[in-house]
Amino acid sequence: MEIDPTQRFVPVILGGDIGTYTLAREFYEAYQVRSVVLPAAGNGVIEHSVAIDLRPIGSMADEGRVVEALLELAAELKASGDRPLMLFGSLDFHIMLIAKHRAALEEHYVIPYPELEVIEAAALKENFYALADRLGIAHPRTAVYRPGADLEALAGNFTFPLIGKPSSSGDWIAAKFEGKQKIHTIQDFAQLAELVSKIDASGYTSGYILQEYVPGGDDVMRLCTYFATKEGKVIFAGYGEVVIEEHAPLVLGNSAAIVTGRNDAMAADGARMLEELGWRGIAMIDAKYDHRDGQIKFFEINPRLGRNHFYLTAAGVNPARFYVTEFLGAEFDSASVETTAVVETEAGVLQLSREHLFTVLPHHLLRRFLDSGTGRKAAVLLKSGKVSNPLKFAPEKHPRRRVYLVLNAVNHYVKYKKFPPRSI
């Protein structure tokens, strides 16, 4: 089903994961508009959806070819009238692609992201930690490894275990080596030496972050999604506490269940950081609560909505509406944010006011992982029915989507049996 020529505006989304589907669903819920989704290839989460016009384009490694496809799509969508097109990316490398080719794309698309230099100042983790230092925002002790660096000297500043992760998530996608993970937990110097040897041989040349390990399981992970106006003023901060993460290597660290809430300190620190950068649009900050000193330690900025950002919509704040009201204008959405879903802090930043449980897991499986402070909050919400899954969407009537939901649930059982959560 193609886009209706009378549709007032069209979201165009690069990607094909659950975050892509969720954003398309959110636009459909808020405005009854369908989104054009451009993945490398189709898959169960985005196929046969009432909210999506699917246009697989193959590998996105050739940026020039992706830009050409986007320009051709813009000409097609505007053939029946000059309606606004909004361009989104689901992964960091999509955002970098859009930012690098902004001059060509901006002639045809509304781009709700900052300029390239602003994104680079935040998205590269080494830049992020330098900014956190300057602003006095708590974060784990960090060093940056580059090929040829004195590894022993770097490691000498830490006590094992260490956390290892790429400074550039976009560049990391192209790195290929056995045992590669999104985040590595490194137990000793021999393991560190072996890992960096593989990284050096993989062609990855950006910085590799070595970081103090902050103890604690999934339930001490924190996240907050912020929205900044075109003038760079942060007006919203949506805080969440992770109940359980995914632990399969390719999706390690993705939140599988989140309890929403309010945290004035994280809201204020993140707003300060984004306003210092001159951010506009949405960003998400990952963090971890450190029981040793009672502080929330900032880990990184994602220059986009997170993969599991549906926790916001589940709690009553649909981020699609921020995009539309700020970047298209009030004529496309004159309604205000639902007042019962938010509370305004002294700094003038709206925060979520409702506790709600987001999860992509079958409830029976989730109940196995609720033996923690955050887990007990989730158990109460689960029992009271205050729980949402982005894939469970009543307007989706296609029978293949129902089959996909069953297969997806079974796959979660398989993954958690093979890759159980950490306990420390």
Describe the fold and architecture.
The protein has 424 residues and is of the alpha/beta class. It has 3 domains: 10-111, Rossmann fold, CATH 3.40.50.20; 141-212, Dna Ligase, domain 1, CATH 3.30.1490; 218-418, ATP-grasp fold, B domain (D-amino Acid Aminotransferase, Chain A, domain 1, 2-Layer Sandwich). Helix content is 35%, strand content 21%. The chain contains 15 helices and 17 strands. The strands form 3 sheets. Strands 9, 10, 11, 12, 13, 14, 15, 16 and 17 form a 9-stranded mixed beta sheet that branches. It has a 4-stranded parallel beta sheet with strand order 3-2-1-4. Helix 1 links the parallel strand 1 (10-14) and strand 2. Helix 3 (92-100) packs antiparallel against helix 5 (116-123) and helix 5 packs across helix 6. The longest helix has 20 residues, at 399-418. It is globular, with a radius of gyration of 21 Å. The mean pLDDT is 93. This is Carbamoyl-phosphate synthase. InterPro entries: ATP-grasp. It comes from Glutamicibacter soli.
Tally of contiguous helical segments? 15
> What is the level 1 CATH name of the largest domain?
Alpha Beta
Percent strand equals 15-25%
How many domain modules? 3
The share of residues in helices is 25-40%
Q: Note the quaternary state here.
A: single chain
Please tell me the overall pLDDT.
93
Number of strands: 17
Q: What Rg, in angstroms, do the CA atoms define?
A: 21 Å
- Largest sheet, described in full? 9 strands, mixed
In terms of structural class, how would the helical and strand content be classed?
Answer: alpha/beta
Shape: globular
CATH topology of the largest domain: D-amino Acid Aminotransferase, Chain A, domain 1
Q: CATH homologous superfamily of the largest domain, by name?
A: ATP-grasp fold, B domain
> Per CATH, which architecture of the largest domain?
2-Layer Sandwich
Domain ATP-grasp: 129-328
Keywords: ATP-binding, Nucleotide-binding
Organism: Glutamicibacter soli
GO molecular function: ATP binding; metal ion binding
